[in-house]
Amino acid sequence: MVKMELIRKGKVRDIYRYSDRKLVLVATDRISAFDFVLPTEIPDKGKILTKMSVLWFQRFPEVENHLIEWRWEKVPGLPEEFKERFMLVHEAEPIPVEFIVRGYLAGSGWREYKRTGKLFGQDVGEGLRESDRLPRPVFTPTTKAMEGHDMPISLEEYREIVGPHADYLMEVSLSIYQKAHDYALGKGIIIADTKFEFGLLDGKPILIDELLTPDSSRFWPAEEYEPGKPQRSFDKQYVRDYLLSTDWDRKSTPPPLPPEVVKKTQEKYREALRRLFGEEG
User: Predicted confidence band at 146 (pLDDT cuts at 50, 70, 90)?
Assistant: First the structure.
């Protein structure tokens, strides 16, 4: 077995050094909410999200990404528990920005629009309601915080941070979102917004991290879409809603999730994969 070094234990993923300039990303079944890792796991979540990311990467061959291999039998030395939940990837230098694209008014975007009439400084029109589709997808970058919350930044600040690749990566983010949105809509899912991450490999920007999963995106069932209110989602919003219904103060250790919340959350992840790609998780 290859001796791997655990170099980072994230909220939901573990990162190992596999060899020189190659990493193994392992998607666990941990789930986080309100900046806390919950004490209860969602069985098979890591496998479902890994399969979804791989399938999305394969749909965008025109955009170079970090993925080398995902098939366990093709990567010597991996423990069997990594099977179906890992990606062997090129080690890139992460660009310290979250590349966020919004196609609909939801979440923090809706709260900002209600407060200012704009979407993080960008005009999107007057009189929009919660969950309304925007006239066009909007790029709203944020900082990438190792701890705490990511913070919105202006396009000018974004360009200062990212440098010469800024305009290209904004265009790529908007293009991937639009193509993914149109594909998903044909499968009965609205991708309301998503975040991408990019890194530099030998000075060249590539897609890294996960791609278009319910953990990095807001997925809504298209047949239930009704603007003017919050939408049912395929992501962990169900978990957030449960936690908000408890007396947890969001400052201390979170409470365990009851079995019915675990089961329902797992079903949501599985349904998203099944709808998008006809795959079982």
Answer: low
pLDDT in tens, 152-188: 999 999 999 999 999 999 999 999 999 999 999 999 9
Q: Do 120 and 83 belong together in one domain?
A: no
Q: Per-residue pLDDT for 260 more than 70?
A: yes
Q: Say if residue 190 is in the same domain as residue 82.
A: no
Same domain, 98 and 191: yes
Per DSSP, what are the bridge partners of residue 5?
17
In a domain, 257, yes or no: no
Q: Do 84 and 97 belong together in one domain?
A: no
Radius of gyration of the chain (CA): 19
Rounded Cα gap, residues 42 and 240, in angstroms? 14
Q: Are 118 and 99 in contact (CB under 8 A)?
A: no
Q: Is 108 exposed, middle or buried (0-12, 13-18, 19+ CB in 10 A)?
A: middle
What is the extent of the structural domain holding 139? 93-244
Question: How much is the pLDDT for 1?
Answer: 59
In the chain, the percentage of residues whose pLDDT exceeds 90 is 91
5: Cα separation from own chain's centroid: 25
pLDDT at position 145: 74
Supply the pTM of this predicted model.
Answer: 0.94
Same domain, 205 and 139: yes
The average confidence (pLDDT) of the chain is: 95
Task: List, in sequence order, every residue forming a beta bridge with 19; answer none if it has no partner.
Answer: 22
What six digits make up the tokens of 227? 């603007």
C-alpha span between 166 and 159 (Å, rounded):
5
For residue 174, give both structure tokens: 């908007």
Query: For the chain, how many structural domains are there in total?
Result: 2
Pick from 152, 169, 167: nearest CA to 113: 152
